[in-house]
Amino acid sequence: MLEIKNVSKTFNAGTINEKKALNQLNLKLENEDFVTVIGGNGAGKSTMLNAITGVFRIDSGEVTVDGQNITNLPEYKRAKYIGRVFQDPMMGTAADMWVEENLSIAESRGKHRTIKWAITKKDRERFRELLTQLDLGLENRLSTKMGLLSGGQRQAITLLMAAMQKPKLLLLDEHTAALDPATASKVLALTDRIVAENHLTAIMITHNMKDAIQHGNRLIMMNQGKIIYDVSGEEKAKLTKADLMAKFAEIAGENQESDRMLLN
Questions:
Q1: Who's near 212: CB < 8 A, 6+ residues apart?
Q2: How confident is the model at residue 258 (pLDDT cuts 50, 70, 90)?
Q3: What is the pLDDT of residue 87?
């Protein structure tokens, strides 16, 4: 479903601020893989997602989604293949628009537009049913502005919107990092359900090693723009936080105590 071949990206090349963010990165995801990604600050995690979505042009390499080479496609043309949820609950939705308006926009993404009422009674019934499944009391708040919702409520709706068109690839960029632990746990449970029920292929970046171990069927660790550890199946199920700390120290050879990824 996703193949990244020898992708490299350097920012501020030739200057004192030069930073090699991705270094001949290779990654292959099969259909319905749910991969969690961990690594220290500057390891290349978010840069990898940005390379997939086309936020910037990569220096070299190829990105393929479901057999389609998207390396040279602009960001807006990749949108039909990819759904994304950001760390900031304020991103991914229109704060001044109603909940139902946001859902309507997500539902119509990639479809042919016609001259008709934007939201019908049938649409509202369907949106209400979808929101009921979130179990957050949002089914009766269709006409509430998104900006008035809590961070957790907004992130849950953003996740729902990202999956509405069943994208080839769902990208979750630390989407629970800004939430309190209880709300984050609810959103993660919702993530598991949405990915499983819609048979999605997903990548979830996290700094929380416990979450990385508990969710998904595969875990990768990044450092200096490369994947330094890749584990799946029963081997992943047996992992502990201590195992990951030891593995990072062994492979990366750095002072892991100063790395933010280990603070959780």
A1: 36, 37, 38, 204, 206, 219, 244
A2: very low
A3: 87
Structure tokens, 72: 């040279």
Count of beta carbons in the 10 Å neighbourhood of residue 67? 8
| DSSP per-residue letters across 90-144 | TSSS-TTSBHHHHHHHHHHTTSPP-SS-SS-HHHHHHHHHHHHTTTSS-TT-TTS
Look up tokens 């819609």; give the residue. 198
Question: What is the rounded distance in angstroms from the CA atom of residue 213 to the CA atom of residue 14?
Answer: 39
Specify the CATH number for 2-262; select among 3.40.1390.10, 3.40.50.300, 3.60.15.10, 3.30.2270.10.
3.40.50.300
Query: Torsion-angle region of residue 94: left (phi > 0), alpha (psi -120 to 50) or beta?
Result: beta
Q: Where are the domains of the chain?
A: 2-262
Give the model confidence (pLDDT) of 177-222 as tens digits. Answer: 888 888 888 889 999 999 999 999 999 999 888 999 999 999 999 9
Tell me how far apart the alpha carbons of residues 141 and 42 are, in angstroms, rounded to a whole number.
39
pTM for the full model? 0.87
Asked if residues 84 and 55 have their Cβ atoms less than 8 Å apart, the reply is no
Which run of H or of E encompasses 206?
none
Instruction: Give the per-residue pLDDT at 66.
Output: 93
Residues paired with residue 87 on neighbouring β-strands, in sequence order:
none
pLDDT tens, 119-151?
A: 788 888 889 988 888 888 888 898 899 999 988
Cα atoms in the 13 Å half-sphere on the side-chain side of 215: 31
Mean pLDDT of the chain: 87
Distance CA 142, CA 153 (A): 13
Rounded to the nearest 5°, which phi and psi values hold at 100? -65, -30
